[in-house]
Amino acid sequence: MAKKKYLLEHMTWPEAQAAFSRKPCVVVIPIGSTEQHGPHMPLGTDFLTAEEFARRLGERAEVIVTPTIPIGYAKYHTSFPGTLSVKEDTLANMLMEICEDLVSYGATHILFVNGHGGNMQAIRQCGEMLRELGVPMAAVVYWKVIQTVNPNWLPIGHGDYVETSLVLALDESLPNMKIAKIPTSKNLTDAISLDTPHDAKFNGGTVFVNLITADLTDSGDMLEFGLSAATNYNIPPTAGSKEMGEKIYEGITDYLVRFVEEFGKVKLPPVESLGPLAQ
Hints:
The protein is of the alpha/beta class. The chain has one domain (9-265): 3-Layer(aba) Sandwich (Rossmann fold), CATH 3.40.50. Helix content is 34%, strand content 12%. The strands form three sheets. Strands 2-1-3-4 form a four-stranded parallel sheet, sandwiched between helices. Strands 6-7-8 form a three-stranded antiparallel sheet, with no helix packed on it. Helix 2 (45-60) packs across helix 6 (161-170) and helix 6 (161-170) packs across helix 7.
């Protein structure tokens, strides 16, 4: 018996029509970024890993997986050659227009598998539009759920051993492990430290700052304090492995399969029926 197709780009239009007729019809949109990941990691890290999570989800769950969106909002990385970025409004408009088409074909739920934090504002804008249409939307980034899957998997930064493991599992030739190192992050002053280009610490409090990656690091890779429950930030990328990457893919795919099953049950009432102004 022929296996059902799940990748939209592999379907004919009649096959797509049949797939969109399933109810609930959860559509998965993998999205990432083409951006620097330090000297040892490929520029496609974020979209390649998101694509792999979505592909594995599609194989196991009855969902449609769209082509991957490989470029997002990454302006703060463009000091490093090869990074590609679009404006947040451009990205948001593209996502909304894509989702409008998907909903018109029969999509009832939209799930973004997102590999890049810089995309979240555009995804949120798209989610607001979908909520007006009564369509549930969710977005999953692996580092937000990874410790739920395995508390010993502790991301520590951009181009770290976790990301390195995920890329090694895809293609061991992509990372240049000979130059992989523990990154160092700069501070603004002796008293103001930086967790990310957007989060500074002063006297125990967190303050928003609008910096670029090159303000923190000369090499592009960087520690991101508070990204997980990690207390050891001296773990080198060489601690990663293909085997670890494969376990992460499988563990998070298990999580996504369970989430999709539950997410498909979500039904939203019309916006105009809610709140004190409802008629």
